[in-house]
């Protein structure tokens, strides 16, 4: 198998996971005021189900159900301790010490945790997750055309995930017509997508953040087209998240920080070029979300979730949120400012124990946030102000 970059496959994987988290912080800048068009559709108090899409940030088990490849599962360390130690008491195929954002939202809405779509014999009527580690906005064929062969990027792109959902629809809501009636009372969490699309470019193709911006319009259009597909299937309430501020993630800081010049860091200690890429992605996405809402104002309620602003604020003023050491992975190896080593990532040899109190930390494994951060994000999506409009109205 050829690898076009000098990064190992496992480092890429990690990076892709990290990106997702990072995206949360990057989209911000403008706070929550980006979406201006409003919907005439009211928020619901009781959603009948929650359907989720995305990547490792929202992983709730698909990668473990889908991969029978032992080598790959060894790279995918979310199957190992100390993942899951805070809440589940065991690795729960989530990239976190406990619950991910969609878990907290499910609990707040009185819904069960979303089972992975690849689980056999489950009832999906109250929700199901299509999200899978490595998920991208663009098709794998697109990355193949750029010379990418690593199968980790081919687990389930956005279009593939929508296809999985379509195949499950008869078991969830019956006919096309009855599905329209059912799905209009469901909550759709569509991504964040995009993090891995940039991970492929930065970590595998070795592009600079500036070069990666060339593909942003394509990536954002793929996400917007995905939202249109969901609407055509009957979705009414759709949350579309931007991505984290990747320039603040331990993985990128440790991979690119050394080579970066002083002027590449912002006053907080994040990498400006990476955050600029994320902000660019988020600003284009917000525009497209706004245009979609305007187009479907009388029949849908599209909610833009500004992960970037919220996470960036946590990085800038961690004490305000009860956090410390915002750049240090809670579970990792190598110590120092970032405690991140691609060859000894959380769950691997040398990194089998977490920091003493994960609830005081932002970064769980150098890529993904801690359960505590996910809890704050979920609260902000449900009640605002980092979701426009908030899920609960
Ligand atoms: C299993 O995964 C490893 C690592 O990604 C890969 O090199 C190998 O080709 C895969 N094996 C099969 C049978 O797919
Ligand atoms: C992915 O491939 C399918 C089938 O070839 C195509 O219809 C779709 O437009 C592609 N999606 C993206 C985001 O390029
Ligand atoms: C929503 O608006 C579109 C055009 O803007 C119109 O064709 C459609 O009939 C409207 N639907 C409802 C339910 O009012």
From TrEMBL:
InterPro entries in the cross-refs: GDSL, SGNH_hydro_sf, SGNH_plant_lipase-like
Lipid metabolism recorded as keyword: no
Pfam families for this protein: Lipase_GDSL
Keywords: Glycoprotein, Hydrolase, Signal
Highest taxon, organism lineage: Eukaryota
Signal sequence residues: 1-26
Single GO molecular function: hydrolase activity, acting on ester bonds
Sequence similarity: Belongs to the 'GDSL' lipolytic enzyme family.
Protein name: Esterase
Lineage, top ranks: Eukaryota, Viridiplantae, Streptophyta, Embryophyta, Tracheophyta
């Amino acid at each position: 198998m050829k690898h076009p970059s000098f990064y190992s496959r496992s480092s890429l994987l990690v990076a892709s996971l990290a990106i997702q988290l990072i995206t949360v912080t990057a989209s911000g800048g403008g706070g929550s005021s980006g979406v201006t068009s409003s919907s005439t559709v009211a928020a619901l108090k009781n959603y009948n189900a929650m359907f989720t899409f995305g990547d490792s940030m929202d992983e709730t088990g698909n990668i473990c159900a889908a991969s029978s490849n032992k080598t790959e599962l060894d790279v995918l360390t979310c199957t190992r301790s100390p993942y899951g130690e805070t809440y589940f008491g065991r690795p729960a195929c989530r990239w976190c010490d406990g619950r991910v954002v969609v878990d907290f939202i499910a609990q707040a809405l009185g819904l069960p945790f979303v089972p992975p779509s690849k689980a056999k014999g489950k009832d999906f009527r109250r929700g199901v997750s299509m999200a899978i580690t490595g998920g991208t906005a663009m098709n794998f064929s697109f990355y193949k055309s750029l010379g990418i062969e690593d199968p980790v990027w081919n687990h389930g792109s956005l279009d593939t995930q929508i296809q999985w959902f379509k195949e499950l629809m008869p078991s969830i809501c019956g006919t096309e017509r009855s599905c329209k009636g059912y799905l209009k009372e469901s909550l759709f969490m569509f991504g964040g997508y995009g993090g891995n699309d940039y991970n492929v470019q930065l970590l595998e193709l070795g592009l600079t953040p500036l070069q990666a911006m060339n593909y942003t319009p394509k990536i954002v259009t793929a996400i917007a087209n995905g939202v249109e597909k969901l609407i055509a299937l009957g979705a009414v309430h759709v949350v579309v998240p931007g991505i984290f501020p990747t320039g603040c993630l331990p993985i990128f800081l440790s991979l690119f920080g050394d080579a970066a010049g002083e002027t590449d860091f912002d006053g907080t200690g994040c990498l400006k070029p990476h955050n600029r890429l994320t902000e660019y992605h988020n600003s284009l996405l917000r525009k497209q979300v706004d245009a979609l809402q305007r187009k479907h104002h009388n029949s849908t309620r599209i909610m833009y979730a500004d992960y970037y602003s919220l996470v960036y604020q946590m990085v800038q003023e961690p004490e305000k949120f009860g956090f410390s050491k915002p750049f240090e992975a809670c579970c990792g190896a190598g110590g120092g400012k970032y405690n991140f080593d691609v060859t000894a990532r959380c769950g691997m040899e040398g990194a089998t124990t977490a920091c003493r109190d994960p609830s005081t930390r932002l970064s769980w494994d150098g890529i993904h946030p801690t359960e505590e951060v996910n809890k704050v994000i979920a609260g902000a999506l449900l009640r605002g102000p980092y979701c426009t409009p908030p899920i609960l109205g």
